[in-house]
Design goal:
Chains A, B: Belongs to the formate--tetrahydrofolate ligase family. The structure is a homodimer of 556-residue chains. With 556 residues, chain A is an alpha/beta fold. Helix content of chain A is 37%, strand content 19%.
């Protein structure tokens, strides 16, 4: 079988100037990174403000399982298909994180014949955005420590420094560390730790900021520590916001690459989908909407987490009006949601597929609550049977929706033309009815309750009184109008990753709440969230290298 | 007064394709990073192998003082001047480190009218080389820890892990840390610490490797830890060398930018000048020599450290044959070497200048030992008097050399034309007589003794018996043919930074020796060497930001 990297390498890339030209972007409006990657320049971005917007399409999925759903692949395939049927379409996806590429996760550049290229570059350093975020984050860390070192005029309570450090590498040894050992010149010993770069609030900020001025304001708002009296100290108090903005100046410009079929792809930003909102940057999405008639984007994890945050955080704050949702499912993943173990996925099992459709159906119901029409994409895998596919189509039809089989993995854009055609029909015949799930002015606790009830179908929400007190304190401090960013397992509607399908009657237990004052949301943590992954027993790094021709091998 | 950043911003940059064309580099042989930065592609670099080499000129300096010497500025000015007098010349300098830009150090892109541009980019992320080095270094750190975590099949003695971590940020809190706290899933608690990226052995390796194959071999040779029986464990044992090479693949390609006068400048690599050899990359220097008739490069610190390592490590290992040396001095720095404090530099003081010439004279004598002709460049500062300049010229003439006044800071290349003309005369009338100071097969201890005697003019070398035993052990293990890399204060020929001028009769005390098996040298540490700087009381980061027009301010 041909691997993703082999397919990617066999592709004929167009000069990025030609890809840009198809969106009406002149050559002097991009800064090239080699012949196949570019950033849109800031003056060009500013010049787009008055142009009309294209149609925004969200690709989301059922709850993920180890069987795989193919959300990015479907986003790429749909974008290619829209171009094939004559629409000016672009896709907007997230940048992959470097660290996990050396663990066990493959890259995040799609797969099969629905990929973005150059995939090695995209999966590795790309245009350096994540490195810039790492630098900006760690500059702030160094400046906080330095402030304390030189006399602590702001009276930071060292026990209450909440700003950690980041590195784009899976290094479990750095999760919890003691710093400033070794004597007076190294500072005051204290506790710290590293998260992976995608978990940085700077990443979330970059992805929500509308321009450099907004970026600096948000960076300045980051709460980095508290005093003994618990009053907050911000990044602005530390005077790091200007230098951080300078470090992020180029990273704020969206990156343009191409799909295997030479269609434009914006890949920009990549916040965690648990403690952050899991979407590509607002600036990329908004720019793409000015340049294309159709913009296909995706959100992290399943629709319960990803789509909800896309709507309630990104669209609400950026004023985006999505026109349709594509809900991706695979027969294999439906079987797992229907109770089958990964080892038992081979062979036809219509009953399991039907049982797993409960998960699909729940997401379809949920998506209707945002006022956006949905369509189901069955991402075809070799081995799916006609009877299994028919079962899904029939189930979805019973809910008044349509499920379309998509073969973009095997056939590229041609394999998703049916989906594209149906989608165009839906969008062009439809009307703007998007609305977030809850209003800005709902109390924070009730925002969580609304999501728990409407999306997770929980009977209730529980939390330590300290959590409720904290939410009230933030409301009193003027943060009550922020949306909430739910951090829970992506594998279930509940907080128990083993409960697949469409469970109800559970309680959502909040473990902790955090204020991301710069990003502009309250993180509500339900369960254990890992912000620094480790490497597996045999990390994929051991097999990554250059072959004799100088090609990258082992990276997929 | 116009600042460096204002002068840089007022420059008219040529498209980098045009700068490349002047060296005969076709447009498809470079990967552009915007319109003003590029990397030479690997196939093009390989195609140069059979071309003849141009003349290599080293710019070095007297011992640095807080008054400043202007080595990079002179390198840039001389390159521009050579172009002005009709020579096809290029310069090769080091990339600046990001972290120190936020402390108190200015950038490292020259100054006045002798700068390389775009200076903001060069001083910040540039083309991402240092970020790639940071990633490669920290991947190895994570893989070592991960190996121990998953059962430690190699039997690493955790107390003897010698591979630390790096970050390109001045963060003193990370100098010495305890890792893997917080429980079983975070690994085994241990000690570690961060150095600044330029201190990474990966940086030294990248700067000495001749191609990707050599790079991977050297990376594999890095010793990362020892067993209880003290047998070494290498990066190759950890199986990190392939993935690290992939991470460094693009970083290995030299960067091309331009001077304010639109002449080609290669800026590539930047190892520390104390625990490493302090020169730009071999691959950039060798490529430049294939493309230009004159290549002007520089080495870190003063000639005692920088030039010695340039000759004995870089030139020896890369087979380079430098044709001439420019020794940079300023009247102000000579005064400080003559015993004047920085606060007292204003006003004519011929006696102090003459006294300080002892330092200059010592370096001139030393340089003769490498068989390379030297010329002195007096880097002119406003306030230097005619009498002071005459005193230096007369002193240098007494040694049979010539001192040329250079005004490139104020006048650009035109200000260094005299120097360029004299240099061409020296080089074109001269012969190849370069030789390193000591042969490869001299015992390690005697290599140190030779440098101490011939360059530092010490009476002897002292060290703990453990140090001598360690050197003998390395010789027995096959490392005896490596050159030594001296790490000592740059401010004096001795190990006492206060002893300016031309001291003798001192003893060189070795504190520690380290084996850089990948870079291919033995580091001999004399005195305290700081590999992770801190930020000052008022870091320059506090004043760095964007102005209303989006320009970077506060970075200089």
């Amino acid at each position: 079988m041909t691997t993703d990297i082999e397919i990617a390498r066999a592709a004929t890339l167009q000069p990025i100037t030609e890809v840009a030209a198809r969106l009406g972007i002149p050559a002097d409006a991009i800064a090239q990174y080699g012949t196949d990657k570019a950033k849109l320049t800031a003056p060009f971005l500013a010049s787009l403000a008055d142009k009309p917007d294209g149609h925004l399409i969200l690709v989301t999925a059922i709850n993920p399982t180890p069987a795989g759903e193919g959300k990015t692949t479907t986003t790429v395939g749909l974008g290619d298909a829209l171009n094939r049927i004559g629409k000016k379409a672009a896709i907007c996806i997230r940048e992959p994180s470097l660290g996990p590429c050396f663990g066990m996760k493959g890259g995040a550049a799609g797969g099969g014949h629905a990929q973005v290229v150059p995939m090695e570059d995209i999966n590795l350093h790309f245009t350096g955005d994540f490195h810039a975020i790492t630098s900006a984050h760690n500059l702030l860390s160094a400046m906080i420590e330095n402030h304390v070192y030189w006399g602590n005029a702001l009276e930071i309570d060292q026990r209450r420094i909440v700003w950690r450090r980041v590195v784009d590498m899976n290094d479990r040894a750095l999760r919890q560390i003691t710093t400033s050992l070794g004597g007076v010149t190294n500072g005051f010993p204290g506790e710290s730790g590293f998260d992976i770069t995608v978990a940085s609030e700077v990443m979330a900020i970059l992805c929500l900021a509308t321009d450099l001025e907004d970026l600096q304001r948000r960076l300045g708002d980051i709460i980095v520590a508290y005093r003994r009296d618990k009053s907050p100290i911000t990044c602005r108090d530390i005077k790091a916001d200007g230098a951080m903005t300078v470090l992020l100046k180029t990273a704020m410009q969206p990156n343009l690459v191409q799909t295997l079929e030479n269609n434009p792809a914006f890949i920009h930003g990549g916040p965690f989908a648990n403690i952050a909102h899991g979407c590509n940057s607002v600036i990329a999405t908004k720019s793409a909407l000015k340049l294309a008639d159709y913009v296909v984007t995706e959100a992290g994890f399943g629709a319960d987490l990803g789509a909800e945050k896309f709507f309630d955080i990104k669209c609400r704050k950026a004023g985006l009006k999505p026109k349709a949702v594509v809900l991706v499912a695979t027969i294999r993943a439906l079987k797992m949601n229907g109770g089958v173990a990964k080892a038992d996925l081979a062979g036809e099992n219509v009953a399991a597929v039907t049982a797993g459709c409960d998960n699909l159906g729940r997401h379809i119901e949920n998506l209707a609550k945002f006022g956006v029409p949905a369509i189901v994409a069955i991402n075809h895998f070799t081995g799916d049977t006609e009877a299994e596919i028919a079962a899904v189509k029939s189930y979805v039809a019973g809910l008044g929706r349509e499920a379309i089989i998509c073969r973009h993995w095997a056939d590229g854009g041609a394999g998703a033309e049916d989906l594209a055609a149906k989608l165009v029909e839906m969008v062009e015949g439809g009307s703007d009815r998007f609305k977030p799930l809850y209003p800005d002015d709902l109390p924070l606790w009730e925002k969580v309750e609304t999501i728990a009830r409407e999306i997770y179908r929980a009977d209730g929400v529980s939390a330590d009184p300290a959590v409720r007190a904290q939410l009230s304190a933030w409301e009193a401090a003027g943060f009550g109008n922020l949306p909430v960013c739910m951090a829970k397992t992506q594998y279930s509607f509940t907080t128990d990753p083993e409960r697949r399908g469409a469970p109800d009657g559970h309680t959502l237990e909040i473990r902790e709440v955090r204020l991301a004052a710069g990003a502009g949301f309250i993180v509500v943590i339900c369960g254990q969230i890992m912000t620094m992954p480790g490497l597996p027993r045999i990390p994929s790094a051991e097999n990554i290298g250059l072959d004799e021709a100088g090609n990258v091998v082992g990276l997929f």
